Amino acid sequence: MEFPRVPLGDWIEGGLNWLTSEYSIVTRAISRVTQTGIDGLNDALMWLPDWSLLVIIAGLCWWLANVRLAIGAVAGLALIWNLDLWDPMIETLTLVVIATLVAVVIALPVGIAAALSERLYKTIMPVLDFMQTMPAFVYLIPAIPFFGIGSVSAIFATVIFSMPPAIRFTTLGIRQVPVELVEAADAYGATRGQKLLKVQLPMSLPTVMAGINQTIMLALSMVVIAAMIGADGLGSEVWRAIQRLRPGDGFEAGIAVVILAMLLDRLTQSLRKQRKS
């Protein structure tokens, strides 16, 4: 006996077609706003001389971490500049910053709500499991019909892909606040908002920062993959090297991605340690 095939792909495709036709005005508005933000931040970073941005980043590393990280940042960024990958690095950094900001703005309220509501927590956890298990390339598929080829689609796919850790860690941090502290706040007559702002969020901040760190790392990895749908930056350099069979150029761009990832990771970890202390 042969069972009929479930037309799941047809249903998904029909749903995407319906969404793109019914909400085209919304997606175009989002696309314009996002593209304006990308162009504005990218132009601002490009306007700065290379050496001045290098000095700013090195000073930030020194202030947040230590001299060793500042020296490593100077060495790594100088190598990127020497390999003529400075502009692609700036484009990648722009996409990561914007995608991370959007992801965090969405994730923090959702994570807080899930921490305070047991029903929402049980509902959202399977959704987050699904989102984190889905292969990264799949997120590129719905981005194209919504926003077309380019950086806006890359931002859309990156936000969806990188958001789950921030939600999960925010929820985890708030739920792990000692019950005694929450009960003490109740005993002093604190409202729900006062408990959240003055007890739960400050105590959970190191865990929240860990989630933001993971979001940044996932955003960087997705921005590189998003070169397949027209995103600019180091990912496009890697993609171009693959298409032209130039492994040397591909490894150079890959090393630049590693340097940028290590720099962002160390900076956010240093910020997390400062918050802990």
TrEMBL record:
One of its GO terms (molecular function) is amine transmembrane transporter activity. One of its GO terms (cellular component) is ATP-binding cassette (ABC) transporter complex. Gene3D superfamilies: MetI-like. Keywords: Cell membrane, Membrane, Transmembrane, Transmembrane helix, Transport. Belongs to the binding-protein-dependent transport system permease family. It comes from the Bacteria. The lineage of its organism: Bacteria, Pseudomonadati, Pseudomonadota, Gammaproteobacteria, Oceanospirillales. GO terms for biological process: choline transport; glycine betaine transport. It is a multi-pass membrane protein. The keyword Transmembrane applies. The keyword Transmembrane applies. This is Proline/glycine betaine ABC transporter permease.
